[in-house]
Write a structure and sequence with these properties.
- The chain has about 375 residues and is mostly helical.
- The chain has 3 domains: about 15-130, no CATH class; about 145-265, no CATH class; about 275-370.
- About 60% of the residues lie in helices and about 0% in strands.
- It has 20 helices and no strands.
- It has helices spanning about 20, 30-45, 50-55, 60-65, 85-100, 105-115, 120-130, 130-135, 145-150, 160-180, 185-195, 200-205, 210-235, 245-255, 260-275, 285-295, 300-315, 325-335, 350, 355-370.
- α2 (about 30-45) runs antiparallel to α3 (about 50-55).
- The longest helix has 26 residues, at about 210-235.
- The chain starts with 17 loop residues before the first helix and ends with a helix.
Length: about 375
């Protein structure tokens, strides 16, 4: 089907005033939203066949035509440009006043008064109609590449999951227009999305069940990615995050509830621990945890001297200590009163050894892996 907009399309609207168009508005107002949207497109592009289709075809046939509506603000020669929706609003309200004695016009006026944000939603709908031509929602990094870089598990086919996520997002977007035009309710949106994406399967992949840490990290990543995709669309298309279209809300809530209570509890406890470390001594929880592992063992004084000097000379901001040896020793005595007196006098060169270096980086690697959620 050809695009609805072409350079040859006449820009006049006189032959399609409200008194004529309102004949296509059903008495029960069941096609009110569709009527207003088609009227706007007629106002912008003067497509009489759309009005005729309201009377002679099923709503889904009209929708199929509307969904192919492409509006390019930069190349279009339409006189209304980006403000065409506002121009239509003014024109329509004037015509409602002009034909206020027409019973159908009175019904239309009541509908518009009830739908207080109808004009904003019309703008969003038309922006959505040209979504793939106006906005670029693609990420510099694809999901598969991002997941491979963040997750160590090989039990998931990230390429397959990427395809399923993209398919889910495409159907979520398509349902947005259909929902606002009254073709779907919450249950039908849910049924369609569930036919396109196996929510249960991707919430708990069977191969990850024996590995709770891998499963938790996978869920965190999937949650973040799905909600990021929805928030991008919410910001571009202008609707509230607290009043999402039903299809968007279903996916957003699914992502929000990926983690079960035990997993949430683990993360909350881990976060609580991470926030309770001596920040006046250590630059991060990781550096504190590394030293604490050593401090709870019976090492000679030279090992703790080596650790301090290692932190002191580190180029990693998460591990570089900036306090003096005196301040560090004072904290050490208060933190580990059962330990022997700590003396820091030797330099890093004098206190280091090959074995200490190997042990240090082995423990550091473990810390980085455990607390890099």
């Amino acid at each position: 089907m050809k695009d609805l907009i072409s350079k040859e399309t006449p820009m006049t609207f006189e032959n399609y005033d409200l008194n004529h168009r309102v004949q296509y508005l059903k008495d029960d107002m069941s096609n009110a939203w569709l009527f207003v949207l088609v009227s706007l497109i007629n106002y912008t592009c003067n497509h009489k066949e759309l009005l005729q289709s309201l009377k002679h075809t099923r709503p889904h046939s009209v929708l199929k035509t509307i969904k192919q509506f492409k509006f390019d603000y930069k190349s279009s020669k339409l006189k209304h440009k980006p403000s065409f929706c506002l121009s239509y609003q003014v024109e329509e309200l004037l015509q409602i006043k002009k034909y206020k004695n027409n019973p159908k016009v009175q019904k239309l006026q009541s509908f518009i008064q009830k739908e207080k944000n109808i004009w904003d939603q019309l703008s969003v709908l038309l922006n959505f109609g040209s979504l793939k031509y106006t906005y670029d929602f693609s990420e510099p990094v694809r999901f598969r590449e991002y997941a491979v870089s963040k997750l160590e598990t090989k039990a998931i086919s990230y390429g397959e999951l990427e395809e399923k996520i993209n398919e889910l997002l495409n159907h979520m977007e398509s349902l947005q227009i259909e929902e606002w035009l009254g073709f779907h309710d919450e249950n039908s949106c849910k049924e369609i999305l569930e036919r396109k994406f196996d929510f249960a399967k991707y919430k708990r992949p069977l191969l990850l069940e024996p590995y709770p840490q891998d499963l938790r990290e996978y869920k965190l990543l999937l949650k973040g990615w799905l909600q990021m995709e929805i928030i991008k669309r919410q910001r571009k298309l202008g609707f509230s995050l607290y009043n999402l279209p039903m299809s968007y809300k279903y996916v957003f809530d699914y992502a929000e509830n990926l983690l079960d209570e035990e997993e949430k509890k683990f993360l909350q406890e881990d976060e609580s621990i991470s926030q309770n470390y001596p920040a006046h001594i250590f630059p991060s929880f990781k550096s504190f945890k590394l030293f604490d592992i050593y401090a709870k063992q019976d090492f000679k004084n030279v090992v703790y001297t080596y650790l301090f000097r290692k932190f002191e000379s580190s180029k990693d901001p998460l591990y570089k200590i900036g306090v003096s040896p005196a301040a560090f020793k004072e904290w050490y005595r208060s933190q580990y009163p059962e330990k022997d007196y700590l003396e820091i006098s030797a330099s890093l060169k004098k206190s280091e050894s090959e074995e200490r270096e190997q042990n240090f980086y082995a423990v550091k690697s473990l810390i980085d892996k455990l607390y890099d959620l």
